[in-house]
Design goal:
The chain contains nine helices and nine strands. Strand 5 (112-114), helix 4 (129-137) and strand 6 (142-144) form a beta-alpha-beta unit. The chain has a single domain, classed as TIM Barrel (Alpha-Beta Barrel), CATH 3.20.20. The radius of gyration is 17 Å and the shape is globular. By secondary structure, the protein is α/β, with parallel strands linked by helices. Helix 6 (188-197) packs parallel to helix 7 (217-231). Helix content is 35%, strand content 12%. The chain has helices at 30-40, 64-74, 96-105, 129-137, 165-172, 188-197, 217-231, 248-258, 264-275, and strands spanning 3-9, 42-48, 81-83, 86-87, 112-114, 142-144, 178-180, 201-204, 237-238. The chain has a six-stranded parallel beta sheet.
Length: 278
C-alpha cells in the first residue's frame, strides 16, 4: 500500500542550542525521519517545525521568514518532504506576507499551519485572514491544530482549539481547503459534523496516541469509525502520524485496521497526493 504522512515534525535547530519543540537537544532530525519513513513504507511527508513561520510560542521573537527559509534550506535536497509553515499571530514581521507569497509562488511551501490553543487566537480571528487569502490564491490548504494540547508549561488554552470554530472559517472562506488536525480529538464527533457540513473541510488522523498503542485503543477505534461512517466520504480524510510522538510503523498498523478497506487508497495516499501536489 502506498502511504503519504501529512503530519510530521522536525527539529532544524542549531546543535548549540536547545530544541524549541521538544525542550532538549535536537534529536528528531531529517535523517531519523527518513529512516523511519523507509521502515514504515511511507513515500512522502508534510512537516511543520516549531519555529518555521512563527508557530513556536516559546520563541515568539524569532523572525518569521528567516525560520521558514531555515526549514526550507534544511530539506532542500529531500524531494520526499514538503513544508507547511506555522503562523504565530504574536510574531508576524512586516515582510512576512511578501516573503511567504514568494515561497508559495515558487512552490516551496505546501500551505500553512495554525496552532490554535498554543497561540491564544481563535481560528476565525481577522489577524489570519491575509494568510487565508493567500491560501485561496495559490490553492493550498491550511491545517488547524484542534483538540488535545501538549502543555508541560501550563500555557495553552483549549477553548481556542475546538473544531467547531472551523465551521465559521469554512463558511467565510469557501474556496480555502481546511484540514482539521487530529480530527478534533477528543471532540471527534464535533469535528465529524464540521466535515460533513462543509465541502471545503478535511481532517487528518494524526496524534490519537503518543508512543505506544494504549489500552484505550478500542475507544479510539470506535470514535474514528463513527466519524468515517458519519461523514461517509473517503476523500475527506488524510493519514498522518504526528511523528516523532509515535513510531510510524506502529501507527500505520493501528490505523490500517480501523480505516475501512474502501477508504484506504484515499486516506493513506490519494487524498494527500492531490491536496499537496506530490
Amino acid at each position: 500500500m502506498r502511504v503519504i504522512d501529512v503530519h510530521l515534525h522536525l527539529d532544524i535547530e542549531d546543535r548549540n542550542r536547545k530544541s524549541v519543540l521538544f525542550l532538549n537537544k535536537p534529536e528528531y532530525t531529517k535523517e531519523k525521519l527518513l529512516a523511519e519513513m523507509k521502515e514504515a513504507g511511507v513515500e512522502r511527508g508534510v512537516f511543520n517545525t516549531a519555529d518555521s513561520v512563527g508557530d513556536g510560542i516559546e520563541s515568539p521573537a524569532y523572525p518569521t521568514p528567516i525560520r521558514m527559509y531555515d526549514a526550507l534550506e534544511y530539506v532542500k535536497d529531500t524531494s520526499s518532504l514538503r513544508l507547511m509553515p506555522g503562523i504565530n499571530p504574536n510574531s508576524i514581521p512586516k515582510n512576512a506576507l511578501r516573503l511567504t507569497e514568494e515561497a508559495l509562488k515558487n512552490g516551496q511551501i505546501a500551505g500553512f499551519k495554525v496552532l490554535s490553543g498554543y497561540t491564544h487566537f481563535y481560528p476565525q480571528d481577522p489577524i489570519y485572514h491575509k494568510f487565508y487569502n493567500l491560501a485561496v490564491k495559490y490553492d493550498v490548504p491550511v491545517m488547524f491544530h484542534t483538540g488535545d494540547l501538549y502543555d508541560p508549561e501550563g500555557i495553552t488554552l483549549a477553548k481556542y482549539a475546538h473544531p467547531l470554530h472551523l465551521d465559521e472559517v469554512a463558511v467565510k472562506f469557501r474556496k480555502m481547503k481546511i484540514i482539521i488536525a487530529h480530527l478534533g480529538n477528543p471532540w471527534v464527533r464535533d469535528a465529524a459534523f464540521v466535515l460533513s457540513k462543509n465541502p471545503n473541510v478535511y481532517a487528518d488522523l494524526s496524534g490519537f496516541f503518543v508512543d505506544r498503542v494504549p489500552k484505550s485503543a478500542p475507544a479510539i477505534a470506535s470514535e474514528l469509525q463513527f466519524a468515517m461512517e458519519y461523514v461517509g466520504e473517503p476523500h475527506k480524510f488524510l493519514y498522518g502520524t504526528d511523528w516523532p510522538l509515535v513510531r510510524m510503523k506502529d501507527y500505520f498498523g493501528f490505523m490500517k485496521k480501523i480505516v475501512p478497506s474502501s477508504f484506504r487508497k484515499n486516506v493513506f495516499y490519494s487524498n494527500a497526493k492531490e491536496m499537496f501536489n506530490f
